[in-house]
Design goal:
6 helices, seven-stranded mixed sheet
Length: about 170
């Protein structure tokens, strides 16, 4: 009897939380948000939409192995992203200070945003794995619409390579 009650209770919680988190996908507009960057400056997404293609990637933690590999592959491809008309933005719940240290340690040329409480991560409905927050990349076109996503928790370097490949193909179709 207890097992049935517990399973019913957990099912209700799971399905109710699934209903409240809308999955963002291709064709959806990105939510409006403002966060502090690695320098403590307020970053408002409205100031960036329409100026360049946006690459927004969510990652669990500064200085962890896969996250560092992911950030460094974005760094190593940064000029290719810039040449393709894209701006790279990394987001996680780390502090402004943690992001500044991470940026300096790995010479990251792109914006890192601090998302305390994972509010923006939740707006994008990025799902976590195990006990970690999620790892997902979104490409946003000049109209503020999602045109590509890449979701892999363990393939950190794939986020940069697959995203750059998509943007380059998108640019050749123009």
């Amino acid at each position: 009897m207890r097992k049935i009650f517990l399973l019913s209770f957990l099912s209700i919680i799971f399905f109710n939380s699934a209903k409240t988190q809308k999955h963002l996908g291709i064709g959806d507009s990105i939510p409006d948000f403002s966060l502090k960057d690695q320098d403590g400056n307020l970053f408002n997404i409205k100031d960036y939409i329409g100026k360049k293609i946006l690459v927004i990637y969510f990652y669990p933690k500064d200085e962890s192995a896969v996250c560092t590999k992911e950030a460094c592959t974005f760094r190593d491809s940064y000029s290719s992203f810039a040449n393709a008309g894209a701006t790279v933005i990394g987001i996680n719940s780390g502090s402004v200070e943690s992001h500044k240290s991470f940026q300096q340690h790995h010479r990251l040329p792109f914006i890192l945003l601090s998302d305390p409480g994972n509010k923006v991560l939740k707006l994008f409905a990025v799902k976590g794995k195990f006990m970690f927050t999620g790892r997902k990349t979104f490409v946003i076109d000049l109209n503020g619409k999602i045109v590509f996503t890449f979701d892999s928790f363990t393939n950190g370097s794939g986020h940069s390579s697959k995203t750059l490949e998509f943007i380059q193909q998108m640019n050749t179709k123009k």
